[in-house]
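Chapter summary example.
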Amino acid sequence: MQKMQNFNKQLTGRFFGKAFVLVLLLALLAPVSGVQAADDEVKIGSLMAMSGALASYGPPINRGVLLAAKHINEAGGVLGKKVKIVTRDSKTDPTSGVDAAKKLVNVDGVTAFVGALSSGVSMPVAESVSIPNKVVQISPSSTTPQLSGLKDDDYVFRTVPGDKLQGVIIGQLALDLGYEKLSFLYVNNDYGKGLTDAAGAWFEDQGGEILAKVPYEKGKASYRGELQEATKKNPDVLVLIGYPENGANILRQSISGGYINEFIFPDGMKAPELIDNVGAQYLNGTYGTSPGSKDTPSAATFKETYTEEYGSTPPKPFMTNAYDAAAVISLAMKKAGSSDSEAIRDNLRFVANPPGEKVYAGVEGFKKAFQLLEEGKDINYQGAGGSVDFNADGDVVSPIEVWQVQDGEIKTVRIEDIAIKDGRFVPAKTVEE
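The structure predicted for these 433 residues follows.
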């Protein structure tokens, strides 16, 4: 019996010894395989609101990022590699957004990312992740003025104009429509407050009267108290600054409760599903604003190629801005000859600002851009969403679209240019007049 036990121990030892050697060999081989796969690609992160209050925006805006990567890759890729987009969900929530951004940096190993969407997520992500980790962050849709004032060591950018630009157009639009008194009902975050203050300041400066500025919290069942406070002095119009998920609820309660039925919307409310959920008969004729772009070669290419790729015209704002963010990150890598974050940061303006030669979106546009960069020349990328001329704060100046709900559909009415007069943003037409 004792001999049998000794034999079993020896057999077991040999078995586990061989198993240990096999596991060790596999462990040694595994990293080599992983490195080889990683050598074939360069990663760019995409921090999108795939769920939460901006869930209707996240997936289509992310398609703008994916389309840019596709065009870059078809033009030859960067650094001899294919661009791979790694997408993580911010859930339209600051805590979740910071967690997702940390995973992009620490787990996925990205050195630059596009996002976040909402200002209320982009700000904490910048302060907790991008700035301390020295990783380039380019938001395609965060418009709060606070983003401009960050002490970010030049790592935080955006390809969308800030609220100071859209705000003056909202204020001017109200005046153009003949409104003399208005109230604001805004989502209680950086986006809502920043845009409210910017629009209110312009409206008051031009002689209009602000009756109320009322914040609201997301996710409530009833907003009758906020509506009562915002409309008790009988404004001519209510500027509702928020997102479709809660915005539809507010609008239904306002209309059914007899509070007010005259509205102006910003970019966050520019959504077909808002019209479906409230009813076109109640919103037809309503005006709104959004960052816009003029008919340029890049804008036309984006619209055409997006329609070919996804079977429909681009449904949301900021998709072009997301495309541009991924594009300039890739072009900066090409210019720098490196995917290092500091190198990307230091070359963004050399690929997107004057006096470089103008290049455009799309496969052929990127091929030309790559050729010029290989020849040692600077380029000036003309974005699908407008100018991508970054200033010292990482901001851009782009036109603002004025749109209207017509027969249940969102239609562009005009594109408003922005000018700078006496150190402040103003509607260009007020300078011309």
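To summarize the output: Residues 2-38 form the longest helix (37 residues).
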